Amino acid sequence: MIDHTRFFKKVTDSIVTIILYVLLLVLIAGMMRILLDIPSVAIDSLEGGFNKIVTNVLTLFIVIEFFKTFADYSKLDRIKLTDITDVTILIAMREVTVGLYSKSFGFETIFALSALLLVLGVIRVLAVRYSPEKV
Question: I need a surface site. Which of 37, 42, 114, 115 has the fewest CB within 10 A?
């Protein structure tokens, strides 16, 4: 008879390991992309090249947070709410920053993303304050 719990655990562990390797490759590719974009700051307009590098660095931070989340999951067998809110906060902050640099957002979008950041910040504080690890 198959032990379904052990089988499920092995499959999820395998999937998480594959995702970690993919994220590691993405981190390396992202770093290479940033290094290759450095000459564009000098060649292109300073603003255009700077926008590319800022966007790529912020995207790399998001990938790093995903990597950290999956690494924690592989150790603890659970996903922490704080890790997910950290990733979501970084994604929202990246969008605000990219939108401000490209001047493509209206005030409604900036306001909506700011409200989202406020809500996520409150969730993050509550998750740390009422963590199950402290209880």
Answer: 42
